[in-house]
Amino acid sequence: MKAKQKRIHVSEQGRPTAPGNNLDPWYSSYAARAAGLSASEVRALFAVASRPEVVSLAGGMPYVSALPEDLVTNAMSTVMRDEGPTALQYGSGQGVPKLREQILDVMALEGIKASASDIVVTTGSQHALELFSKLFLDPGDVVLSEGPSYVTAMVIFKSYQAEVAHVPMDDNGLIPEALRERIAQLKAEGRRLKFLYTIPTFHNPAGVTLAAERRAEILQIAQENGILVLEDNPYGLLYFNQQPPNAIRSLDEDGVVYLGTFSKTLAPGFRVGWALAPHAIREKLILANEAAILCPSSFSQMVISEYLSQADWKGQINTFRGVYKERKETMISALEEYLPGCTWTNPNGGFYVWLTLPDDLDSKAMLPRAVKELVAYTPGTAFYADGGGRQNIRLSFCYPTPEQIRVGIRRLANVVNGELDLLHTFTSSGPLTTRRSSQSFNAPPPNMS
Amino acid sequence: MKAKQKRIHVSEQGRPTAPGNNLDPWYSSYAARAAGLSASEVRALFAVASRPEVVSLAGGMPYVSALPEDLVTNAMSTVMRDEGPTALQYGSGQGVPKLREQILDVMALEGIKASASDIVVTTGSQHALELFSKLFLDPGDVVLSEGPSYVTAMVIFKSYQAEVAHVPMDDNGLIPEALRERIAQLKAEGRRLKFLYTIPTFHNPAGVTLAAERRAEILQIAQENGILVLEDNPYGLLYFNQQPPNAIRSLDEDGVVYLGTFSKTLAPGFRVGWALAPHAIREKLILANEAAILCPSSFSQMVISEYLSQADWKGQINTFRGVYKERKETMISALEEYLPGCTWTNPNGGFYVWLTLPDDLDSKAMLPRAVKELVAYTPGTAFYADGGGRQNIRLSFCYPTPEQIRVGIRRLANVVNGELDLLHTFTSSGPLTTRRSSQSFNAPPPNMS
Questions:
Q1: B209 contacts B244 by C-beta, under 8 angstroms
Q2: Which domains are delineated in chain B?
Q3: What angle do CA B350, B352, B356 make, to 5 degrees?
Q4: Over 60: is that where the pLDDT of B373 sits?
Q5: Cβ atoms A169, A206 nearer than 8 A
Q6: With bands split at pLDDT 50, 70 and 90, how would you rate the model's confidence at B46?
């Protein structure tokens, strides 16, 4: 497949200089940007990990079974009884007004004050990422993001022919000084910087949270450099102990586009998320949304709106918190028991632990052996645009039960120990060093520094 | 707003040469393609036409009230009872397998034989248009389409910085010889032609249907010139008398990407449509779909799948046919009674009549007076990329009741007669000529010929 995505030169006369190949007669017709669309490593994994005998620590599926079905069924029945024809019809490209008002209540929990008129409802927050990227990214632009970063955001940036420049994190999230240096360096190279894409709270995949004092500092750096902040916050309400700092958007409304979603606090099957944006950007997001899909699903939006009206949604989020907290704690204690030679982050919320393997192990090369041992994970390389992350693994504790998590980590330990034995046999470098604390998830990427 | 969409030059150093303006501090950060996203004339109209005292002949909303609500409620209840956690979860980027199998049955009604593995479920067929355009359109490319054509398809093409080249129609649809000439001319100018976008059956807005013998001829012209055919078929099953010719896709599976939707035969509120594409293109559409939204709504897809299993969906389409046939006949008889000085198409299906005003009348200029007379329509200019259509109006008979349609056409006649009186007063050119038969909807557009 990869070879097919190479772009064939199209002549001035508009006729391809090479014919279609025998696998794809339209090979020479694709846009240049289509070359940036390739299957992610995570995607290929899903096929493998879906076999029932495999314990998957790979996906990011929320545990929707913790949601009482009658809460959803009751909301649906009310919508169809009271407003059926409206729910079945086209709606506004911006989204249902009542739901946008209710979204204000959700965001208020993280310190955000806003107007419902600045919210655009999207087909999951993923589509907000896509629409925002379509509006802002020219070929050759640079997007700043944490390293590692969310896979499918990077797929979008690449599909608009932009490059990702990673900025390292530590246990308190993105490092402000590293951001400052990175921006200076890229500007010196004459690169166009459009925005900083960040997941400040319970980062995917790193599991860390940006400290409160850093939020203001990073915002200031962005402002000084004329760079928008795209704050992606799917997990913020799913904290385990103390509440995380308020959203970056709570500090500034002109320089931040905030993305939220009901996929993790309710259910992803409805595909309802949103963007909160400064007025002018919001207007363009609505136009882009209308061009792409005419309007988000009236039905999905109205069912969620009714659920928020009828049900104890804050109590339900609390239930989810309890489920994920137990799973996270199970994972950490299993790691301590079975993988003492590794290091990991210990998140206060969200879905993911970021594991660092002992030196010289390669998470991607190790994956086939892991699948043979009936455990699946996402190799760290999936979360870097630059080949970083070979020594890392993202472990998801959101979907498997605590029992499965323990079994999965035990299997993973067998794989890691097997790899270490192998390494030991073929090298005679003495005992392997392990690092218990990672200060930074990646060195400056080789192709960008 | 229009001035704000003008692109500011970005210097080689990556710093905008002009600062943001006071309305939008991010003015200089947008991608070049964002300039192509502007509010359509149809969109602006929706706001006006939604006032209850206005009879709207403008929108394209299906009459969902003709759908018994319990059919939907029963399907939803079954889904939640039997497969709740699956419906609430993320799903495949290609769409639910069972639904894709059922879509084969829908398409078989128009002569299409295909494999479910070549179907990609999308967020309405609108999103299939968007994804296909993202995959194929480079800046400066040309899309061939009927003149007039579907507004929001043209908005998408423009948003990817492509141009639309119109090809005229007559009462039998797109004129093959005109297509041949247009292609030759554009190729001679060195333009890159990527695909022909066509709505062959019950055209939006023209109401005409491509004759059977022309379907093969147009396919052959496309093949000879290495151009894909993008067949958009939302209305094909909504015929009034004899069944229309089979879909173009029924004649060729390698050169046609076919778009279908449940928005008109069931309900648009679910946002479920699909693309049927040759293997290699289908693979890329799945990747583009996953990047844009991760997956289409599991919930919407499973409710529709259950509806197709439980309900007499063919009988329901028959009900819709009856509703729209009555409305179309009411509209035609009202036009005959109230607007004998105009000409119009008389569709055998779909949602729209295309009206041609007497010479020298301007449908766009006339619109404010129409709204004052409490009738709304879409001016013909909305459906041309080149300023054509001033003498035309799209009249929708899908949503208003027959009584409203008669009232609306009577009001429209008052407006037209008022304009004619005015014209008469200010010119002394004697009786106005009217044309009863339109052979072609547009001359070759001035900026492309």
A1: yes
A2: 41-66+316-426 (3.90.1150.10), 69-310 (3.40.640.10)
A3: 145
A4: yes
A5: yes
A6: low
Report d(CA A368, CA B165) in Å as an integer.
51
Q: Which residue in the set A14, A191, A293 is minimally distant from B127, CB to CB?
A: A293
d(CA B175, CA A333): 72
Cα–Cα dist A97/A276, whole Å: 14
The β-bridge relationship of strands B55-56 and B163-170 is: unpaired
H-state helical runs in B189-312? 212-224, 279-293, 298-310
Give the integer Cα–Cα distance in Å for B406 and B333.
Answer: 9
A22 CB burial (10 A radius; 0-12, 13-18, 19+): exposed
Whether A425 has a pLDDT exceeding 50, the answer reads: yes
pLDDT reported for residue B319: 98
In what side-by-side order are the strands of the sheet with A392-396? A343-344, A352-356, A392-396, A378-379
For residue A7, pLDDT over 80 is answered with: no
ipTM given for this complex = 0.90
Closest residue to B31, CB basis, from A138, A193, A295: A138
Chain A residues within an 8 Å CB radius of B160: 31
List the A119-122 sheet strands across, edge first: A119-122, A273-276, A256-261, A228-232, A193-198, A142-147, A163-170, A173-174
- Which residues in B lie closer than 8 A to residue A271 (C-beta atoms)? 123, 293-297, 300
The two three-digit tokens of residue B155, written as one number: 């908005």
Radius of gyration, CA atoms only, chain A:
23
DSSP string, A42-93: HHHHHHHHTSTTSEE-------GGGS-HHHHHHHHHHHHHHHHHHHTS---T
Cis peptide bond upstream of B205, omega within 30: yes
CB A55 within 8 A of CB A413: no
Split at pLDDT 50, 70, 90, the class of B424 is: confident
Interchain contact B281–A (C-beta under 8 A) = yes
Residue carrying the six token digits 């190949």 = A21
Any CB–CB contact under 8 A between A7 and chain B? no
Q: Are A61 and B89 in contact (CB under 8 A)?
A: yes
Q: Using 50, 70 and 90 to split pLDDT, how confident is the model at A426?
A: confident
> d(Cα B406, Cα B404) in Å, to the nearest integer?
5
Confirm or reject contact between A31 and chain B (CB < 8 A).
yes
Distance from CA of B80 to the nearest CA of A (A): 7
A24:B281 CB<8 A: yes
CB contact under 8 A, B270 and A134: no
